[in-house]
Prior knowledge:
The chain is built from 3 helices and 3 strands, in the order αβββαα. By secondary structure, the chain is of the alpha+beta class. Strands 1-3-2 form a 3-stranded mixed beta sheet. The chain is globular.
Amino acid sequence: MAVRYTKHFLNKLEDVFSESDYILRYEKGNFKSGYCLLKDTKIAIVNKYYTTEGKINCLLDILKSIELDTSTMSDKNTSLLAELSQTKLEL
């Protein structure tokens, strides 16, 4: 799957988070990687001043580093996660 750096694709990734146990927040911060992941409380914080491309890259990094319960997700989000797990991010 080719990663498209559009607002629509960002909305798809945000939808995956909305159906998961994790809470996605956009906050200002000085994160070295562009995001902060609080695994104990299941909160993902992304720098709100990032561009759309930066936000998408951060969300993809987060999705690859956490385990999500797909049993409660819709079929479209489950298939999106399956496609993303097979995609390598090329910067």
